Amino acid sequence: MTPAARRAVALLDTHHDVVTPEGVALHLPVAGPVPRALAWLIDFAIRMAVLFALSMVLGLLGGAGAGAMAVVAFLLYWFYPVVCEVMFDGRSPGKRALGLRVVAADGAPIGWRASFARNLLRVVDMLPFGYALGLVSCLADPAARRLGDMVAGSLVVHLVPDSRGDAAPVVAPHPPRVPLQPAEQAAIVDFAERAPVLTVARRDELADIASPLVNARGSRASEALYAVAAWLLGRRA
Hints:
By secondary structure, the protein is mainly alpha-helical. The chain has twelve helices and four strands. The chain is elongated and about 80 Å long.
């Protein structure tokens, strides 16, 4: 495999790697601007629906209703995301629908102070209009953070299905067709360990990168890489 192919197999997708104080390495798949924007639109629609429903009731109270409506609008704008992030495991309804979660930069749950900071700074990320500054920041930052995330020390990540430590499917080990460098061996083992949490299409797409090594493509390439990984890990039939 070429160096570029090795990097592609080893990295798989964009991850933010951190090591917890307990020494556990975490690979956090960061969310880009598109899924984050879709999640925000869902949350915005929910807030607008709540405001519309309340306006139908509070509008009957005249001036007092208008004052109450202003308070509700303020609370929904500023506290809706904060409460969702802190009280519901970093997931507002929009983020839950898109499979996203807000976490601290070290992978821990986000706290009140950080959540307030990242949401207060939305007014900066929205400049000059339409979250333009936040979009530029997401595209420029390796971890796809907007300015609010940088200041608060937070990340928006994709939720990875719990594999519960499952390894690659049990297959008969098979030695590689050609000698492998240590980095190539590590890339194949890394593929086999992460493949169970990928979609079949994404798994086979990545396996195709190593097609010259296993002389196969698609699902056959994936199975061949599993077999090589099993052999590299010392499993014998």
